[in-house]
Structure formats: structure tokens, C-alpha cells
Amino acid sequence: MKNIDIPVGISNFAEIRKNKYYYIDKTGLIEELLKTTATKVTLITRPRRFGKTLGMSMLENFFDIRKNSKLLFDGLEIADKQALCEKWMNQYPVMFLSLKSVDGNDFLTAYSQLAYEIGALYKEHDYLLESPVLGEEEKKLFWQIKERKTGKIEVMRSLQILSQLLNKHYKKEVILLIDEYDVPIAKATSNGYYKEMLEIMKGLMQALKDNLSLRFAVITGCLKIAKESIFTGTNNFVSDTITDTRLNEYFGFVQSEVDQILKDAGFTDKADLVKKWYDGYRFGDFDVYCPWDVMCYLRDLVYKPEAKPASYWRNTSDNSIIRSFIDYAGSSITNKLENLMDGGYIIQKIDENLTYDYLHSSEDNLWSMLYLTGYLTQKKGIEYQGELPEGTVALTIPNEEIRYIFETTISKWFDESAKKWNREALFDAVWSGDSESITREMSTLLRRTISYHDYREDFYHAFLSGIFTGAGYQVQSNKEHGEGRSDIVVCDSLNGRVAIFEAKRTKVLKDLETECDKALRQIDERMYAKDFEDAYDQVLCYGIAFFKKRCMVKRKES
Hints:
Elements: H1 13-18, H2 28-34, E1 41-45, H3 52-63, H4 70-73, H5 82-88, E2 94-98, H6 107-124, H7 136-146, H8 152-156, H9 158-170, E3 174-179, H10 183-191, H11 194-204, E4 214-221, H12 227-230, E5 237-240, H13 255-265, H14 271-278, E6 281-283, E7 286-288, H15 291-303, H16 320-329, H17 334-341, E8 346-349, H18 363-372, E9 377-378, E10 392-396, H19 400-418, H20 424-432, H21 435-447, H22 457-468, E11 474-481, E12 484-492, E13 497-505, H23 512-525, E14 538-547, E15 550-555
Parallel strand pairs: 1-4, 1-5, 2-3, 3-4, 13-14
Antiparallel strand pairs: 6-7, 8-10, 9-10, 11-12, 12-13, 14-15
């Protein structure tokens, strides 16, 4: 182990460099962007926690005319490009706006957050109030926006106004950087004010349309919102997404970078573990690690060398997308989810031009969201007869961390969903001793559940227990009765009745009845019912056998 400072939660490039924190050199992004300076707007979309904000902070420090950044970039890749640095480093006015904090349960709150961020951006440039080349009316408007004393129209046009004022002051075109541009729209969709926020965002993005004060703009986000919905009229617009890209190596860590980090930190023995947990994302032609996870795990290893990998991404991400997926699609997606969680893949149509208001209009949109937000990734090297259908991608869970999120989060939500299913017909069948109806009702419920790892026995125990839990019954699982432990006991104390279930699992469909009979014999031989005969008026004993999502129930005759 070596003493290196791992910057976790720090996305300010200058802070990292000034404090000599560990930094993976991503300055090649600057040169790559400057290869196409005729491109007015570059939209870069990547999942959360893949270094977008740090990358934008690096661009700000490189271009901003108010800074002297030579020492910050000393020793980094871009510093070797002397001609490029002389022409571009600290030569342009820069506007850097982050929208990742624009949130609210209602439109007024979110709009106020947005106005605050714009006011803070204006405050960074309040030297313009002393500019000899700006008129009094321009300074008055600048002050009003800075102090949040204007109406919606001025807020919507604030980026365009500021770019014009900076252009006039410096006599140079402006570079505009907007980080996490789609967060306000995503939050608005979740909280029911999509149309109101979309109107505001369309106004803000007018700064990108035929703006003679703009040198170029770089925008980052999680999703590429359909151009017509927010970037209306924006020409010379280029998208760099996880599917179609030239910038992939600058967002996320490639293998050589992870190898170097582990070597520098003295943890090369953890390479296989890090790869298993945090690698697996396929961006274009690059395989990348999630940088947030790698750095978090290294930080933990520095303090505790025996630390196990953890799901750091889950603790920072909004997993409501998975929840909305389940609420929307329900049991129709169970087979695909089970396949994914068993390590398989699915062939799915992907649409990168989504609009948030139509997000839940189709199942395809939701799979696209899981792909674009990093819960799924492209699977390489698949064996498929012929070419994949046009517009489709083979999707898989990228690594152990995301698999853990799927297993814990989805299983929990399906359990919660199960408690809302109408089970009255099943309960009536249980208490009336109608084993055929129990078989039918339980089979219906089974088809709506999610299972993986080859339908282990504990899955069926949890399934049985979950059916009755929360329905007013006392449920005992694997509690000792008679001369052994019965699987599930359901007590209806109010009506003086109890149902005992002994469950068996079979790997062969034709053995369902044999296993049912075996379960009934076990109930009888081990006298599971004995403890209840004096306390309850009715004791019902059932043998139940499961094969995948099929079951058979038989009742022990008195």
C-alpha cells in the first residue's frame, strides 16, 4: 500500500490539481474537442458518476480568460501541445452552468432553484457591472438577473444575454459549458410539472441557436433528449453518446488506467476483484470501468486493506427508474429480468432520442432508459444466428455491483408489489380446503413473481411467506412443531384456524405429484399438526410442490 490521496466526491479540477490529489489524465478531451471547432454544440451523454462534471471543470479551467491555468495543466498530456495551448489556454470568456441541483416537488421550487443557479453564474461575472463598454441599461438588466429580480422571460434568455455581454466586454466569442442539462427535465417528469419546465429549458437553450456571440458549447447529461423537444432550431449540433462516440476514453476508466491506479496505490492484487465489480460497461468500442466506484473502493482499501467491494453507485444514483419500470410493466418483464439476473442477455430495441413525457409509453423506452443510465450495457461477443435486427442491441448487466442493485432492489419491489395483489380467492380456497383452486391461484401469482439462480428452495419459502404476510395472518417460517420444522404455518387466530404448508421443489415437471405426496407424508410422520390441535378448531395441512413457475397443491385428508 502506498500513500496516495484519492479524491472522492471532488469534481473541481483546480482543487484536485492544487492539492496534488490523484488524477487520471483526461486532458486529451480538450484536443479532441478542438479538432472540430466548427461544431457549435457538442452534447455528451453518459450515465451518472462517469466523470462528466470533472471533465467540464477541466474545460472551464483550460479555456477561461480570467484564469492563469498553466501550472494546473503542467505535466499533463495537453501541456505537450504547445501551439494548441498558446492559441486556446485562458484565451476565451467561459460560462459554466451546472443544473444538477435543480430539483423540487413542484414547479415553483424547481424554478427558484434554476433562477438561483443562473444568479450565481451572473455573480461570477459581476465585474461586468464596472465594464466601460456596457451601457447602463445592459448593466441594469445584468444586475436584475443576478439578484433574481426579473420575470421568466429574462431567466429563459439569461444565457443568451450573458454571452452577448461577455462578447461585448472582451471582444471575444464565448465558450458555454452546461453540465447535467437534463436533470431539471427528469425531476419535472417525476414530480408532474414537465410542460412548465420544458418551456423554461427551451428558452435557456435559445443561447445555442444562431448566437453570434458563441464560439462553441459543450453540454453534458444522462440522456439525449430528442432534439425537437428542447434544442429546437439548434443547428450544427453533434451528439456523443455511449453508442455512437469518439470521446469514450475520456469518461470512465479504461483498463490501462485502472492497472496504473492499482499499481500506484499498491493494490495490484485486487485487480480481478475490481474488474468483476466495476468493469463491464461497453461505450462504443471501449470497455470502461465506473470511475466513481474504482476511486471509492481504493479509498476504502487505503483505510482498510481487507475491505470488500461495495455498491457505491447505488448510494448516489436515483434508482426510481427501476421502480417506475416495474410499476409500469409488472409481470410482463419478469422473464427478461430473470434472464438478465442469471447472467444472460436480451435483444432489445434501443432509442437514444427519448422524450421524458413519453418515457412510459412503451416497454422499449424503459429498456432504453436502463441502457442509457448505466443499469445495462452492450454485451460483446454474443453468439447470434445472423445479424442483430436493425436498431437492436444485446443488453446485459455490466458487473457485480449492478447485479447486486438488481437483486436487492428489484426483489424488494416485487415483494412489495405482491402484497398488493388480490389474494382473496386464494385465501378462500385455503380455508375451505380447495386444493385445486389453491393450485390455480398460486400458479397465477408465481407467474407474476421474479426469480433467479435456478429457483432455489428459499425462493419458494419466501414466496409462500410473502403471500400471507401483511394480510392479517400470523406467519411462522421453519419453526419447530411436533418432531421437526414445518416450512410455513399460517394462523388465523380470530377464526380459530391454521394452515400448515410443507413445500418441495422438483427439477422435473412430471414429479410434481410425487413430491406433493412426499410433503404430505412428512407432515404426517413428523406430526406438524399436533401442536395446534388443542388451540385451533380447524387445522389444514397442505403439501405443495414447485417446478419453476408451476406448482401443485394437495390437502392431507383428516
